[in-house]
Amino acid sequence: GIIHSATTGMFPAVQMLTATHSAMLIDLVPQNQLLLFQREGEDVVARQNENFDAIAEMTGTRMSMFSKRPIILLEGKSDVIILRRVVRYFRENEPGYEKLTVDVDFDFYIIGGCGNAEFVYEEFRRAFPRRRIFVGFDRDKEGRNAFGRLVGRESKCALYDITDRHKPLPKADCAFLLPFPDGFEGQDFMMEDYLPGAFVQNWLGQWLRRCGRFSSVSNPRGGLKECIGSPQADFSPEDFRGFKPLVDFFVWLQKEVGTRV
Questions:
Q1: Which residues make beta-bridge pairs with 175?
Q2: In terms of Cα–Cα distance, which of 93, 239, 245, 233 is closest to 163?
């Protein structure tokens, strides 16, 4: 708000450019004043922001500061981006999902890591006092710990646990862990684990070939997230079918919220 006031009020004859990666700050700017910079190969292209799908792909969220829809907070940018792609695939290819909207009638935002979960939730709660908020986590150690802090009895947030969707949905803010696919055996499970093993193995093979010397080897998990979060990432339809439990969870949540807002 202060930055925008400076550009329009304090210095009306000065053109001021403000750069940000924050989807919330982007939401505060009039749509006709947004400029999108996007990498295409080795070039960086600037576009006047007339297509908000491009912003959604880059930031993982839609323009929604003034929306009245429920909010879903997910851990990272790649989580939101791949979810939108998955929903689009189901809507266009799978029977029974034709009426899905790309954002499943929610506004998605990014927590930016499990360690920020409580702070981000509290800030969103203050910013949007009349909107329902749902917070989702991976089933790794960090995700389970953050989830426990939000739903724990001693938590000042005290969100309701809706991981088991057979329970009635309370008319309050809620948190959930990603639903397991059928037949899964294990404890840790992340958004990327819905992808088929063949996709992950193929990507790992390419990643290892790019590593070269041992000193250049980095964490492959971060690289896979970056790959998934890239608008240029190449997926086949078969890569998305394993996400059905997650899509069904959001369809259930959509129906429940529609009758309980």
A1: 135, 161
A2: 245
**What is the pTM (predicted TM-score) of this model?**
0.72
Q: Cβ neighbours of residue 121 under 8 Å, at least 6 residues apart? A: 73, 111, 133, 135, 150, 157, 159, 173
* Dist CA 98 CA 88 (whole Å): 9
Token pair recorded at residue 97: 């999902």
∠15-21-189 over CA atoms, to 5°?
170
Q: Between helices 220-229 and 197-211, what is the axis angle to 10°?
A: 110
Number of helices (H), then strands (E), belonging to the chain: the values are 9, 7
Read off the pLDDT of each residue in 173-180 and give the average, rounded to a whole number: 93
CB distance 36 to 55 below 8 Å: yes
- Sheet containing 107-110: which strands, arranged edge to edge? 107-110, 71-74, 133-137, 174-177, 160-161
Beta carbons of 132 and 116 less than 8 angstroms apart? no
DSSP-based three-state secondary structure for 92: helix
The closest of 31, 198, 167 to 176, measured between CA atoms, is: 167
CA 237: distance to chain centroid?
20
pLDDT one-digit tens code per residue, 50-59: 555 555 555 5
- In DSSP terms, 176 is beta-bridged to 136
What is the C-alpha to C-alpha distance for residues 50 and 136, in angstroms, rounded to an integer? 30
Answer yes or no: are the C-beta atoms of 134 and 163 closer than 8 Å.
no
Using the 8-state DSSP alphabet, how is residue 242 labeled? G
Whether pLDDT at 260 is above 90: no
Residue pair 106/254 in contact by the 8 Å Cβ criterion? yes
